[in-house]
């Protein structure tokens, strides 16, 4: 199960790993890139294409302004993702999402915006750091409440 509060964006062409930071008691290497590169990175789908792809997911409700909520259909596995689509000049720029969901549901959400063809970057909203996809998945899959030293993941 992933727990997330992130901004999901197309990955800038030029990005490199920065110095280790500690998050949830584990070490991670964030991505670093010039701000102008991030501003230029957009998804290869329009707002309307992303909206239609998300609307096709079962139990996902999306409003015309791009705000959405997606809930589990299994009482044994309760989860929910709330989010919003943001565009500029017609193209999808980023998706904000928070909540929790299993990996397969997360993959469906990402497919709606062009993944896996489009490499992604994830900005952790509270921590204000950017992570690549593999690092973000390790971070989002880590349980909250762990003490420092319980897990030492160097990404």
Describe the structure.
With 155 residues, this protein is α+β, with helices and mostly antiparallel strands. The protein has one domain (2-139). Helix content is 21%, strand content 36%. The protein contains 4 helices and 11 strands, in the order E-E-E-E-E-H-H-E-E-E-E-H-E-E-H. It has helices at 35-40, 47-55, 103-111, 133-141; strands at residues 2-10, 16-17, 21-23, 26-28, 31-32, 60-62, 67-71, 80-88, 91-101, 120-124, 129-132. Strands 6-7-8-9-1-10-11 form a 7-stranded antiparallel beta sheet, with helices on one face. Strands 2-5 form a two-stranded antiparallel ribbon. Strands 3-4 form a two-stranded antiparallel sheet. A hairpin with an 8-residue loop joins strand 7 (67-71) and strand 8 (80-88). The longest helix has 9 residues, at 47-55. Residues 145-155 have low confidence and may be disordered.
Write the layout of secondary structure elements.
Blueprint: E1 2-10, E2 16-17, E3 21-23, E4 26-28, E5 31-32, H1 35-40, H2 47-55, E6 60-62, E7 67-71, E8 80-88, E9 91-101, H3 103-111, E10 120-124, E11 129-132, H4 133-141
Antiparallel strand pairs: 1-9, 1-10, 2-5, 3-4, 6-7, 7-8, 8-9, 10-11
Task: Identify the notable features of this structure and list them briefly.
155 residues, alpha+beta, 7-stranded antiparallel beta sheet, 4 helices, 11 strands, 36% strand, globular, disordered C terminus
Tell how many strands the DSSP assignment holds.
11
Rg, nearest Å: 16 Å
Element order: H for helix, E for strand: EEEEEHHEEEEHEEH
Overall SS class: alpha+beta
* Strand order, largest beta sheet: 6-7-8-9-1-10-11
Regarding quaternary structure, what we see is: single chain
**Shape category:** globular
Q: Calculate the terminal CA-CA distance, rounded to whole Å.
A: 19 Å
Q: Into which percentage range does the β-strand content fall?
A: 35-45%
Quote the average pLDDT: 90
Number of domains: 1
Number of helices: 4
Helix content: 10-25%
**Low-confidence blocks of residues:** 145-155
